[in-house]
Design brief:
Layout (H helix, E strand, L loop, with lengths): L3 H36 L3 H10 L4 E4 L4 E3 H7 L2 E2 L1 H4 L1 E8 L1 H8 L6 H12 L7 H13 L28 H28 L7 E5 L4 E7 L4 H9 L4 E5 L3 H18 L13 H6 L5 H4 L10 E3 L5 E5 L4 H9 L1 H4 L10 E4 L3 E4 L5 E10 L9 E2 L3 E8 L5 E7 L1 H17 L3 E5 L2 E4 L12 E4 L5 H13 L6 E9 L1 H30 L1 H23 L3 E2 L1 H30 L4 H8 L2 H25 L3 H33 L26 H22 L6 H4 L1 E7 L6 H12 L3 E6 L1 E9 L8 H15 L8 H5 L8 E8 L1 H30 L2 H25 L11 H30 L6 H11 L1 H21 L5 H29 L2 H13 L1
Parallel strand pairs: 3-20
Antiparallel strand pairs: 1-2, 4-6, 4-19, 5-6, 7-13, 7-16, 8-9, 9-12, 10-12, 11-12, 14-15, 15-18, 16-17, 19-24, 21-23, 21-24, 22-23
Length: 990
């Protein structure tokens, strides 16, 4: 081997760099462990401890000192499935942005196009593109995007803006730029909020041009609080309010009108005796108010007063809000009140007649106007901080700019004169509505008080200081992983990696003897390089990523197996050890097969990385890095040890006494079996397709259809069927519950309100889940059941949500990923082998393998003891199967090409049979390595990836079969008779 010294130099340098990079991970983990011990399970105390030592030196290498913050930035980051925490994808509402850019245009074509774009969203189509398509279809050229009442408004005119003469195509470019600027603004606002939240190593990134933002908060535990923080637009407004005396006549008239259209189902409820009821009833008809014949008034549960019209149960807010928005009810408002805006307050707790705590929500009426614009907006707020009001209750103090201070003084002066109230409204919720008792307030300082705890005021001050989002942000995908589950994943991944590594090493030594030891040393160095690269570039390690590392153990020895088998053949032909090694490492030896096989791996891995999201990207990235490092260590590092042995006149035989003659002189007629295998495979394909399309279908996970899943652990063993029935009754829709691993652990799936977005919906689902399952726990509160905390053993250990819009994208990406992988491999093999028949044989085998795996999943998902869902992990498994199926096929095809180009005698079928038989040892050894590591992952890798591993395990077995009995026979049958005759003529004359 030429340049051996240079390779040694780079190998040693690479190893030292890897050790250097990994040292930061060890130091960081040690400091984090000390922080956990110091905090004693208190996450806030842990964060404060780490913050306090952030700038202190924790790692001294002699030539340089590193602070904890520097060490932390250089460590291998663990994904949420290993670290625990919360991962969400936020969708910034492009619809809201477009409305804002048009100044809330009333143009019917514009608004219909917005509605059509929402209704007709497709996978991988952006909202703005769908809007432009809908606008073109609806306007038919009659209305331009540059119309004054759409985008050619005053706010968008000027340099870089829109004028009346612009075409729709020109306007589209401007609008796309403006939308991107708004998403960038939202990105900045969210980053500011997250930086103040108090978690270590938060991650936030934009996802292409989709308007989606990924947020990862490792170690975060308070689910509802975080979702509130992320989704709050921080749209702060100040409105003047009506008092109950001013709006009471309307409510009485509305109640009377509703009697004619509504049937009140509550027949015995008593209306609270408050100021509103006093307005609406007198002594002689108060009895009527108790009979349940008042659709609106019967829903009042407590006294109002001042700006509060009354208090209602949270469950009634939707109904009451619907009443007050009805056109036939709003016409009852007095002329000067026709723009009144009815808004709910922040939920609170009150005492009922029996002194029992009940939830309640206050109703307010704001003084609206034609443009629905508040008297003041929160854009004037320059600073905010959490504080305490005069009574000692938590509050938020705000400071306004000069313009805001002047407007605030005018507004409070008017409220003082009119003895009215000013409602402080955040995201359409009234937080407080104080009166002004001491004259106009100057200086621009104000305060938000109300029903708060200290955490809420901190978060509210945080979002106000960071600024408002330019549009609403909805959580369309989320993943919540408890820290105990993350530790279990680390333990499972570590165990499977160690066991897989030892099994591979043992087999290599057993089969190849001393050469196997060299392969194992190269494998060990490969793992060092792999982790070194991940640490150097800041890649994130996930549980699927660990699976990728374990799979790398199989691929790392694959190249060694191909080389060693070739060297054995050369030795059997009488060459010396040095000659055999030189030939096996040559292009016409093993290198051509290795390159072709690994290029197909890289192509499928790259496609998986491009189309995958989240943890699947981690799996693909690890796989790709592993392929590169494996090739380097297998080809160059192992060669150094072999050459050193040769230089010392060693006795390498690339086998042991037991395995010396395995698979030699093997003459099985694979092509003669093609009728039998064609029939068998045809039956399998027909049965699989019948099951998939007509009988069982596939168990599509929430990734493909949308929904929520919860991994819930109970104190005792529970019956899944019973839990499913109870949850279905609570949610009012089918809820699926399956045993997940242990008998006291279930995976619960529901599609309840999955098309509705908002933090309130998420909280409602969590509350319903707790309400139905709380009876199975002893002294477990809602927070303990839902939220994560160190040492958590029961309750919700993991939760995920995939919205309807993103599930369509995932499904579309999955189809394109599989089809794209097959198309790219077809083209590559056609270029490499220069005959399309090789590509056809390979693709036939791949299609057979994919259908086979899908069929197994369709036939077995109903009774297998582990989940077999169609999700992103499954697609990753399918693409991995495609890559490895190609590996076996390419090895055989390469030998066929070699024999056809060589001087081997025989008919075409005999040459092909000889090719398969002489590569059988390579094929079976390579597949065996993969099966060993996959079985290890299946047994030790943990429940969450068992279905993922099973798909690959089935795929590798089937892929080995198809490369021998499908790919090669298809190649033989597709070669023309004329080409076969030419080949045979050449080889008979040889």
């Amino acid at each position: 081997m030429q340049n051996k010294g240079l390779i040694k130099f780079f190998a040693i340098l690479f190893a030292l760099v890897s050790i250097y990079q990994l040292s930061f991970t060890f130091v960081s983990n040690k400091v984090a462990s000390d922080a956990k011990s110091f905090a004693g399970g208190n996450p806030e105390k842990e964060v404060k401890y780490l913050d306090s030592i952030g700038k202190e030196s924790v790692f001294n290498l002699g030539f340089s000192n590193f602070t904890y913050n520097e060490v932390k930035d250089k460590q291998i980051n663990k994904g949420l499935d290993l670290e625990g925490g919360i991962n969400v994808i936020l969708q910034i509402s492009v619809k809201d942005i477009l409305k804002g850019l048009s100044n809330n245009s009333k143009n019917p074509v514009f608004n219909k196009s917005l509605a059509d774009a929402t209704a007709n969203m497709e996978g991988n189509k952006t909202y703005i593109d769908k809007f432009f398509e809908a606008f073109e279809a609806n306007s038919k050229g009659s209305v331009k995007l540059a119309s004054p009442d759409i985008f050619a408004n005053r706010s968008l005119q000027g340099e870089g803006g829109i004028d009346f003469q612009m075409t729709d195509a020109q306007v589209q470019k401007v609008i796309k730029r403006k939308v991107n600027e708004s998403v960038e603004s939202a990105f900045g606002v969210l980053r500011k909020r997250i930086d103040k939240f108090g978690v270590t190593q938060p991650n936030i990134q934009k996802l292409g041009e989709s308007g989606r933002i990924l947020v990862e908060l490792p170690g975060a535990k308070d689910v509802d609080r975080i979702k509130n923080l992320l989704q709050s637009t921080a749209q702060l407004e100040f409105w003047e309010t009506y008092k109950i005396e001013e709006i009471g006549n309307f409510l009485m008239a509305a109640n009377e009108a509703l009697k004619k259209t509504e049937i009140n189902k509550v027949a015995t409820k008593t209306v609270a005796k408050d100021s509103l009821s006093a307005l609406l009833t007198d002594a002689k008809d108060s009895a009527t108010a108790k009979t349940g014949n008042n659709p609106l008034l019967d829903k009042i549960i407590a006294q109002g007063g001042g700006p509060v019209l009354g208090l209602f149960a949270p469950k009634d807010t939707a109904v009451v809000g619907g009443y007050l928005r009805r056109a036939d009810i709003r016409v009852l408002l007095a002329a000067d009140q026709r723009y009144a805006k009815f808004v709910w307050g922040k939920p609170t707790t009150i005492k009922d007649a029996k002194a029992k705590d009940i939830d309640a929500v206050e109703l307010y009426a704001l003084k609206g106007n034609r443009d629905n614009v508040a008297s003041m907006s929160g854009g004037v707020v320059t600073d905010a901080s959490d504080t305490f009001d005069q009574t000692g209750k938590p509050a938020v103090s705000m400071q306004m700019n000069g313009q805001g201070a002047k407007a605030w003084e005018e507004l409070t002066g008017r409220a003082y004169t009119q003895k009215s109230n000013i409602a402080i409204v955040l995201d359409n919720v009234v937080y407080s509505a104080p009166g002004v008792s001491s004259g106009p307030i100057s200086g621009g300082r104000s305060e938000i008080s109300g029903v708060f705890d200290v955490t809420e005021t901190k978060d509210l001050a945080n979002v106000l200081k960071a600024g408002k989002l330019p549009a609403s942000a909805d959580i369309i995908q989320s993943e919540v992983v408890g820290p105990s589950l993350g530790q279990a994943a680390i333990d499972a991944g570590t165990t499977s990696s160690i066991v897989g590594f030892l099994l591979v090493c043992i087999w290599m030594v057993f089969y190849y003897g001393k050469a196997g030891w060299y392969a194992n040393l190269a494998l060990l160095l490969n793992l060092l390089f792999l982790f070194g690269i991940m640490a150097s570039f800041g890649f994130v390690l996930t549980l699927p990523g660990i699976a990728g590392i374990v799979l790398t153990l199989g691929t790392a020895v694959d190249a060694n197996i191909i080389i060693y088998e070739r060297a054995k053949e050369e030795l059997r032909e009488g060459k010396t050890l040095a000659e055999a090694v030189e030939a096996s490492y040559g292009w016409h030896g093993a290198m051509r097969s290795i390159i072709d096989a690994n290029v197909t791996h890289i192509l499928t891995g790259a496609i998986l990385f491009i189309f995958g999201t989240g943890m699947i990207k981690g799996f693909a990235l690890t796989l790709l890095i592993g392929i590169i490092t494996s090739l380097f260590t297998s080809i160059f590092i192992a060669r150094i040890f072999i050459d050193k042995n040769i230089a010392k006149n060693g006795d390498l035989t690339f086998s042991t006494a037991i395995t010396k003659n395995w698979f030699t002189n093997f003459h099985f007629d694979f092509i003669g079996m093609k009728k039998v295998t064609y029939i068998f495979s045809s039956i399998v394909v027909i049965v699989s397709l019948t099951s998939i399309f007509f009988v069982n279908g596939l168990d599509q996970g929430v990734d493909f259809v949308g929904g929520r899943t919860f991994q819930v652990k109970f104190e005792k063993e529970v019956e899944a069927t019973k839990i499913s029935e109870e949850l279905s009754a609570e949610f009012g829709t089918t809820v699926e519950a399956k045993v997940f691993g242990d008998d006291n652990q279930l995976k619960i799936t529901t599609k309840y309100k999955i098309k509705e977005e908002g933090v309130d919906i998420d909280k409602e689902v969590n509350e319903k889940l707790y309400k139905a399952l709380g009876k199975y726990y002893t002294n477990t509160t809602y927070d303990q059941f839902i939220n994560s905390y160190d040492g958590k053993k029961i309750g919700v250990l993991q939760a995920s949500k995939v919205g309807a819009s993103i599930s369509e994208d995932i499904k579309t990406n999955s189809y394109w990923a599989v089809l794209g992988a097959m198309a790219v491999i077809f083209l590559y093999l056609m270029i490499s082998f220069r005959k399309w028949q090789y590509s056809l044989g390979a693709i036939a085998a791949v299609a057979h393998d994919v259908i086979f795996v899908l069929g197994i999943y369709s036939l077995c998902y109903k009774f297998m003891p582990f989940h077999m869902e169609m999700d992103q992990h499954f697609i990753a498994a399918i693409l991995t199967v495609i890559g490895y199926s190609m590996n076996d096929t390419v090895i055989v095809f390469d030998r066929i090409r070699e024999f056809i180009m060589g001087k081997r005698k025989g008919t075409f079928e005999e040459i092909v049979n000889a090719s398969i038989n002489t590569t059988l040892s390579r094929t079976l050894n390579t597949s065996l390595m993969m099966i060993i590591v996959l079985l290890t992952m299946f047994v030790f890798g943990g429940e969450s990836i068992r279905g993922f591993i099973f798909a690959m395990l089935v795929g590798i077995v089937v892929g080995t079969y198809s490369s021998l009995f499908i790919a090669t026979p298809v190649l033989v049958d597709s070669i023309s008779k004329a080409d076969k005759a030419l080949i045979e003529k050449k080889h008979q004359e040889a």
